Amino acid sequence: MWLYLLIGMLFGVTLTQAEIVSWYRIAEMFQFDSFHMYGVIGSAVVLGVLFLQLARRLGWQSVEGKPFAIYVYPMGWKRFLLGGTVFGMGWAITGACPGPLFILAGAGYSPVLIPLVGALLGTFVYGLVRHRLPH
User: Fold this and answer.
1) Which of 20, 36, 65, 134 is deepest in the core (most CB within 10 A)?
2) Rounded Cα gap, residues 4 and 83, in angstroms
3) DSSP string, 65-133
4) How crowded is residue 122: how many other Cβ atoms within 10 Å of its Cβ?
5) How much is the pTM?
6) Contact 30, 38 (CB under 8 A)
């Protein structure tokens, strides 16, 4: 467990130093004033695809010893458009997506506790009503 805590702290420091958690960087992104965040997100997507392909070809397994299984979502653009819009609006309003909320809270920015509590409550409510939603 200590290893995961250490990796999480290192990840948080890295994102902070790279200004990924900066509200100003996120505002620049949504106003199309800077390439910084698009470069970071694009790099993450490319690296994710490369590592996933590498994991498949080399037969890597999860921590539980199971092969990686990728769930293929049924096609339907409406739900992705709606979900992406809601996520993007929350990101634009708060200036942070869920991961950096924890980093900002750990860095001592107390106003971020409001969206953090909202995100946790939203996740809890989703868990309660998930069985009633179309999936």
Assistant:
1) 20
2) 30
3) SPBP----PPP-HHHHHHHHHHHHHHHHHHS--HHHHHHHHHTT-GGGHHHHHHHHHHHHHHHHHGGGS
4) 14
5) 0.69
6) no
For the stretch 61-74, pLDDT in tens is 888 888 877 777 77
H or E stretch covering 9: helix 2-17
What are the CA-CA distances from residue 19 to residues 22, 37, 61, 103, 127 (Å)? 5, 9, 33, 12, 32
User: How many Cβ atoms are within 10 Å of 131's Cβ, its own excluded?
Assistant: 7
Vertex 53: Cα angle to 49 and 57 (nearest 5): 170
Query: Among 25-34, 43-52, 90-99, 101-110, which stretch is predicted with the lowest mean pLDDT?
Result: 90-99
Q: What are the domain boundaries of the chain?
A: 2-34+71-132
3-state secondary structure of 61: strand
